[in-house]
Amino acid sequence: MDHTHSLFIFSEPINKMIHLMKFKNNLAIANLFGTLMAEHILKNYQRLPDLIIPMPLHPRRLRFRGYNQAELLTQVISKKTKIPMHRSIVFRKRYTPPQHTLSAKLRIKNMRNVFQIKENVEGKHILVIDDVITTGASVRALSQTINDAGARTIDVYSIARTIHEPHSILVQSR
């Protein structure tokens, strides 16, 4: 992971809006946050990334929820920035308990060997989109998988992040 960017701190009212989007099917919120993220991306890159991917959900969780909130954000961002979206480059190869139910230590363990690359990313600048970064375990695991496949640069954007705590593994933005 080369850079991480979050628009907000995960606190009220942002946390409640994300909850509505993620668990209560309020998809208009994804459009709002996706638009804000796209504006931030366009403002902060002189040269846009080669492609954009959403944090993948395991197919079982996708069937249960009915949508991937990170993919909804990514669709809006891709449309507004013209960065090609590739949802099938990487996938979750095993089901894991939801991260928000685990301690920081268990989140790291939960994410080991979860992701697999299906397409060539060698030399690419990749932008990963997620809704919330808490400890950073998910985005680090995904970024490591993409990095191991030869990506040149990996940046991560999220709506919000929790305040950085000493036990967090998140690499701060440079």
CATH level 3 topology: Rossmann fold
Task: Classify the helix fraction into a percent range.
Answer: 25-40%
**What shape does the CA trace take?**
globular
- State the CATH class: Alpha Beta
Description of the molecule:
With 174 residues, the chain is α/β, with parallel strands linked by helices. It has a single domain, classed as Rossmann fold. Helix content is 38%, strand content 20%. The protein is built from six helices and six strands. It has helices at residues 14-23, 28-44, 59-65, 69-81, 104-110, 137-148; strands at residues 3-9, 51-54, 90-92, 115-117, 125-133, 153-161. It has a four-stranded parallel sheet, sandwiched between helices. Strands 3-4 form a two-stranded antiparallel ribbon. Strand 5 (125-133), helix 6 and strand 6 form a beta-alpha-beta unit. Helix 2 crosses helix 4 (69-81). The longest helix is centred in the first third of the chain and has 17 residues, at 28-44. It is globular and about 40 Å long.
